[in-house]
UniProtKB/TrEMBL annotation:
EC number(s) reported in the record: 2.7.4.3
Ranges for region NMP: 34-63
Localization per Swiss-Prot or TrEMBL: Cytoplasm
GO terms, molecular function: AMP kinase activity; ATP binding
Protein name (database record): Adenylate kinase
Any GO BP: AMP salvage
Cited function: Catalyzes the reversible transfer of the terminal phosphate group between ATP and AMP. Plays an important role in cellular energy homeostasis and in adenine nucleotide metabolism.
Keywords from the named record: ATP-binding, Cytoplasm, Kinase, Nucleotide biosynthesis, Nucleotide-binding, Transferase
Catalysed conversion reaction: AMP + ATP = 2 ADP
Free-text comment about domains: Consists of three domains, a large central CORE domain and two small peripheral domains, NMPbind and LID, which undergo movements during catalysis. The LID domain closes over the site of phosphoryl transfer upon ATP binding. Assembling and dissambling the active center during each catalytic cycle provides an effective means to prevent ATP hydrolysis.
Residue numbers binding ATP: G14, S15, G16, K17, G18, T19, R130, K175
Gene encoding the protein: adk
Length: 191
């Protein structure tokens, strides 16, 4: 069995990708890279790019795939073959998923995409609660609606792609944080 060293958390907004990515990274002693956190950091930077990012994110728009691709490529290309990494928020479009797959074959960096499956209703509940707690602009009602539309248009093709190439692991994300984490660890053979 090949040694998996690259892990991606994928799923709709509010599915727990950030939480589960952090737990997995801790479990396997690997760094976690969040494209969302990277974008928020750039948006706060006061540059022209930062201003464009900030306004797009506040509206709930999915950012250009070339920007997301650049951020995860930069990370992947800096890793040694044996280094492990957990990505959260990477590969939100078909072209990004295909690019990651192509890179992983060439380097080689075997990977698994962990799909945290939750209903839209559950995601609404979680994001509404998170908005009250964190005040994130992209968790407002209008932004959530747009993020869900973007997810349906673009992210669902990512799930289908990873399934077709045999790298998808599907997890019921509607359980408790601890139960989902246990299911992720078991499904990845890391227990």
């Amino acid at each position: 069995m090949e040694q998996i060293n690259t892990f991606l958390m994928v799923g709709r907004p509010g599915s727990g990708k950030g939480t589960q990515a952090a737990l997995l990274a801790k479990k396997i002693s690997a760094p976690m890279f969040s494209t969302g956190n990277e974008f928020r950091s750039l948006a706060a930077g006061g540059t022209y790019l930062g201003g464009r990012l900030k306004s797009a994110m506040e509206r709930g728009e999915l950012l250009p795939h070339w920007l997301a691709s650049y951020t995860f490529e930069k990370v992947l290309f800096g890793l040694a073959p044996e280094d492990k990494i957990v990505f959260e928020g990477a590969c939100r479009t078909g072209p990004e998923a295909e690019l990651l797959h192509e890179i992983s074959l060439w380097l080689p960096r075997p990977y698994k995409a962990v799909y945290l499956r939750i209903s839209e209703e559950e995601a609404w509940k979680r994001l509404s609660l998170r908005q009250k707690e964190s005040g994130r602009a992209d968790d407002g009602e209008t932004a959530i609606r747009l993020r869900f539309e973007e997810y349906k248009k673009k992210n669902e093709t990512v799930i289908k792609y990873f399934s077709a190439v045999g790298t998808l692991v599907e997890i019921n994300g509607e359980k408790t944080v601890e139960e989902v984490h246990a299911d992720v660890i078991k499904a990845l053979g890391l227990s």
